[in-house]
Amino acid sequence: DQQVKQNSPSLSVQEGRISILNCDYTNSMFDYFLWYKKYPAEGPTFLISISSIKDKNEDGRFTVFLNKSAKHLSLHIVPSQPGDSAVYFCAASSYTGNQFYFGTGTSLTVIP
Amino acid sequence: DSGVTQTPKHLITATGQRVTLRCSPRSGDLSVYWYQQSLDQGLQFLIQYYNGEERAKGNILERFSAQQFPDLHSELNLSSLELGDSALYFCASSVRTGPNTGELFFGEGSRLTVL
User: Fold this and answer.
1) Model pLDDT for residues B61-82, shown as the tens digit of each residue
2) Which residues of chain B approach chain A closer than 8 Å at the C-beta?
3) I need a surface site. Which of A71, A88, B78, B85 has the fewest CB within 10 A?
């Protein structure tokens, strides 16, 4: 039972344009969401997070939006750079839980 | 460098065998998580330990077991290996557990190939 879903396995974007990566979740108890970035042969690295009390969190070129009613979050990267090419994982956890549930990832390719 | 160390990086073994994967968390982190990533799959949560005690269990097979030692390093034991156990196994650590855990810090993973 996949509680966190990333329905787009891959995405290609031109350098300088916006990349939008989407994530949906099913468990209404989730209240903390994270995005991780993974390069080949490396472990995932934390990128940005958002608590359910917010609907937006920004860190430089990266912004995460949370729509609780739709159980949807998205990661915006503006402007996209070739170095952003990686697999992006969305993750969620609940306040009372010890588990982080991960999506299947979206492979982003930024074309120079 | 996340500060989380996993060994071995690569392991090739045969069906029916047993292997042990080792993880050293970041200095000061008390919580260790194990995840499995199979081909085209997301990160599947296996098990979590906090300061030596099991805190949460996910989709971990009965053939798999783990423990966290007093020095906080953790080992994941995989036995009676099957072809389908071939995967990348990640260890992650965090300072706390439960509410406001914050982010997880991942190791580079151990790639297991079962032939």
Assistant:
1) 999 999 999 999 999 999 999 9
2) 2, 4, 31, 33, 35, 40-45, 48, 50, 55-56, 58, 90, 92, 97-99, 101, 103-109
3) A71
